[in-house]
Amino acid sequence: MELVEAGDFLRWAADGGIVPDPRGPDGQAPLTFGGAPPAMRRWVAPEAPFNLPGFASCLLGSTARQSSVYLFIKGGAPWFTGSDPATGPEWEHLRDRVVATLPIPRDFRGALKMAFSESDDVVLLLVTFFVYAWCVNDDLQVVSEQRDV
Fold it and tell me: Residues 89-115: pLDDT tens digits?
């Protein structure tokens, strides 16, 4: 896993035509293909929780084609919620516990470049964000190294 600062990641993505959606709120816009007509910008995850790992594995296998992927929190938000365990929502604590299994600094706001050999960790993060994100369909942005999906 390689940590990529948010500005570096966004410049790299923009070079491939992937930019924050101009229709989204400033600073919180999900990534989209620049210049493309309005379309769905996210994958719709299955509703049954037991189907999420298989869905995430298929998504990764079809997009990454044995190359690296970049994972980025929408708007460059931090990987950890910063929620107080004594008072915050339980789902935020669970998300933070899963994220803490990887060597991600608590204040890091950039992208994770994950090698194909780290696909188990990628699937774990995808499933975690499908279940424990604020907006489960687009809080975690996934960009293949080819920048084509």
Answer: 998 999 999 999 999 999 999 999 999
